[in-house]
Amino acid sequence: MPTIVNLGPIPDMLERRLRACFEVCPIAQAEAPEQIEVAVTTSMVGASAQQMAQLPRLQLILCNGAGLDRIDLAEAAARHIEVFNTADAVTTDTADYAVALLYAAKRRVTQADRFVRAGQWGKEAFTPTRRVSGSKVGIVGLGKIGTLVAQRMQGLGLEVGYHTPRPKPAAGLAYFDHIEQLAAWCDVLVLCCPATPATDRLVGSQVLQALGSAGTLINISRGSVVAEDDLIQALGQGVIAAAALDVFASEPALDSRLATLPNVILSPHAAAITVETRAEMAALLYQRAAAHFQAGLTG
């Protein structure tokens, strides 16, 4: 039975699926690492050049998740190691989550829950929230996820604009050359772009000031896209109204100041954590591993 090494913790559902046909063990416990051809990891764990160096015959890295920013892609390319992720599997649920965070942030759903649980209902008035209908939504990044987010927002009757490095006329949406222009136009700014050098700390004080005191920021992309110090200051000083964050600059040990702010919703990188997505991701990675070893038998 072929052996696959895991480079860090992987979801139970994925491990069970792989163990149906393969031996799965941590890289540190591999009896013959020099013979290993396939490794499995997650977007959160990644794969370092040092780990790859321990596996001289490595040919395939299976990544549970869409993000590849924690995988040393340059090293993988230099060694001709294929990196296979599950980007398509996370698209639908991540787009759905953007809608959930939109309502949660603007209608203060989590705050309302805490208000009732604390026994405040009937003793004091709940602060009025902001209407979703009529909002303008600005989307940063119009890839597969961003496109689905746009479709869902339009389905709610909301006006949608976007910013990307280059316009996409086929999208049929208002395009903004600069993210500050988009932020000034919209009521809700949704981040859907990948983590790249160009998007590092893309959203800082200037963008947040443009978004304004009635604006809401939603981040379902990567924590590195936001200058977190600037965001914390903006939330604390009322520069923007609210934020809903599924990703952070440091995960899972996020900046403790965020937990003290009443106008931010914090989510544990959970946009794609559904039973259905986990099953699809496990199936995709299993199928790719099976194809690799089958090709080795018939090649």
Write up this protein:
- The chain has 2 domains: 3-86 and 275-296, Rossmann fold; 90-266, Rossmann fold.
- 36% of the residues lie in helices and 16% in strands.
- The protein has helices at 12-19, 49-53, 73-78, 87-106, 109-117, 144-155, 179-185, 205-211, 228-237, 275-298; strands at 3-6, 23-26, 38-42, 60-64, 82-84, 136-140, 159-163, 174-175, 188-191, 216-219, 242-245, 264-266.
- The radius of gyration is 21 Å and the shape is elongated.
Quick structural gist:
The chain has 299 residues and is an alpha/beta fold. It contains ten helices and twelve strands. The protein has two domains: 3-86 and 275-296, NAD(P)-binding Rossmann-like Domain (Rossmann fold), CATH 3.40.50; 90-266, NAD(P)-binding Rossmann-like Domain (Rossmann fold), CATH 3.40.50.720.
Map the helices and strands.
Layout: E1 3-6, H1 12-19, E2 23-26, E3 38-42, H2 49-53, E4 60-64, H3 73-78, E5 82-84, H4 87-106, H5 109-117, E6 136-140, H6 144-155, E7 159-163, E8 174-175, H7 179-185, E9 188-191, H8 205-211, E10 216-219, H9 228-237, E11 242-245, E12 264-266, H10 275-298
Parallel strand pairs: 1-2, 1-3, 3-4, 4-5, 6-7, 6-9, 7-8, 9-10, 10-11, 11-12
Protein name: 2-hydroxyacid dehydrogenase
Domain D-isomer specific 2-hydroxyacid dehydrogenase NAD-binding: 99-271
Organism: Pseudomonas juntendi
The unreliable regions are: none
Number of strands: 12
Rg, nearest Å: 21 Å
Give the H and E element order: EHEEHEHEHHEHEEHEHEHEEH
Q: Which shape, going by the Cα principal axes?
A: elongated
Strand order of the largest sheet: 8-7-6-9-10-11-12
Biggest sheet features:
7 strands, parallel
Please indicate the count of domains.
2
Helix percent band: 25-40%
Per CATH, the superfamily of the largest domain is: NAD(P)-binding Rossmann-like Domain
What integer is the average pLDDT?
A: 95
CATH class of the largest domain reads Alpha Beta
CATH topology value of the largest domain: Rossmann fold
Architecture of the largest domain in CATH? 3-Layer(aba) Sandwich
Kindly report how far apart the N and C termini lie: 18 Å
Strand pairing plus helix content: what structural class?
alpha/beta
